[in-house]
Amino acid sequence: MKKVLTDLVQADMELWFDPNGIGDTPEVILRTSLTDYQRGNEPENTNRTIEEVTHVLNVNFEALKKIGPVRATIRWFNRERLRQQATLHGNWKAAKAELDLWCGGIAIYRDGFRIGFSGQSTGEDWLGLDSSALKRGGFAVNRIQTVGALEISRKENPGLVDRSNREGLIESPESNLVRDMLSKFAIDELRRYIGHEGQEEKKARLNDIVESAPATIRARILQAEQGLTSIRSKVPADVQESVQSIANNLHFIKNEVTRFEEASKLATERREDILELAGVGTVMSGVLHELTRTTGHTRQLLQKLSKDESPGTKALLTKLDSEIKAINTRLRQLDPLTPSGRHRKEIFNLSALLNTILEGYGARFERHNIIPEFKISGVDDTQPVEVNMVRGFVSLAIENLITNSVYWVQQGGRSDRRITLELDAESRTLTLRDNGPGISPADKDRIFTAGFTMRPKGQGLGLFIAAEVATYHDARLLLDSADEDGRYRGFVLELPKE
After folding, report:
1. What is the pLDDT of residues 296-311, one digit of tens each?
2. What are the CA-CA distances from residue 146 to residues 126, 199, 218, 298, 417 (Å)?
3. How far apart are CA 11 and CA 317, in angstroms?
4. What DSSP string runs through 125-152?
5. pTM
6. What does the DSSP assignment read for 270-282?
7. pLDDT tens digit string along 145-160?
8. Domain-by-domain residue ranges, the chain?
């Protein structure tokens, strides 16, 4: 690559992976280094441990060891900015010709020799750069603005085999893992850093959730209702009340989904605050998750009824009733997000709201063996702790923080899973802590960034939304201080002082 182009690189992303360990720390198996030449910042280096890499890629360490060590370099050019800078220096034609020659994505080099047409604009988009850019609503990191190289060797990477036409790698568990690794630890991180995903792209991502969820939720409710119809004719009189309660609550959920759907359409059409759409999308996802469990329980009930297991049937009905009531509790707390109550600040008792939210998570806590604790300091427990905020937005932020903790306490390998909320009336703070694996120091500055996630199928919206809620109220959401092992296991919401 000629100097006329290398002088105009916007950003470099380098990735090293070695299952045997990088440097003097064998538990660190992946390292990335991001250099922003335009802003003149120091390289941003991030180390990832065995535990982190296996979790994000959803594989075991044995599968990673089969890949062998690899290295990748990705150079990103913003063509519009490149044109402006090169024109200023009078060498635009030469720079464009050089970029057109090299661009095309990430080429694969084995022992220094390029594999076929990989990394050329006319070749296969083996890393899916263009398709993922389309899904995100922007072309920040795509093949026409990217030049890259993946370095492998015949000796170290026997599981990465060329196709017979040498136009890429044969599909295999190893090649798929390399693709996922580059996408999640290099490409996604580069995209986030560039910050090309503006409000429209964030809304587009939430739109996907909002548009698809209502129909799926209604289908889940229909399944549950059909199951209840079969159950009603078979259960004894002493549990008919529970069956009717479940039916009534399902009807309520169906009506609420319609209201949330209307709210999402208004938010989309007017392009108002992203929090509106975020709220609706989060509610939809949460309800869908719980309803999937509900329909599973109705199937279990039908199986038990066919075997005449009446004691077990009664217990399951009671559990099903409580879980559906919990969904309704959550929906009622988020009711201000629907058109009739949007954006209205009000003075309310935050401690009462927190108690109600925790009550709504009761079935989920029980299911995952999580012990919740809620403490109030600075005032007597019976005294209200009042805030002037949008109740629905606050519910949304707290739900996202709790949901985040519910997931991570299950990944820590501990049997005593705990989530603690402490509301301090004197310092006007709400602290949420859990005893999960915690947040790596490498991620502390990006944890609230839209799209950042360490969950295999996460969307990276929950903590971002919670932070946006705080900003909306002129408040702040921060990480609590690190624990002795250097990892972060708590969030502090600084409440408005008014």
Report:
1. 555 555 555 545 555 5
2. 14, 24, 43, 51, 44
3. 58
4. -TT-HHHHHHHTT--SSSGGGEEEEEEE
5. 0.65
6. HT--HHHHHHHHH
7. 777 889 999 999 999 8
8. 3-194, 199-343
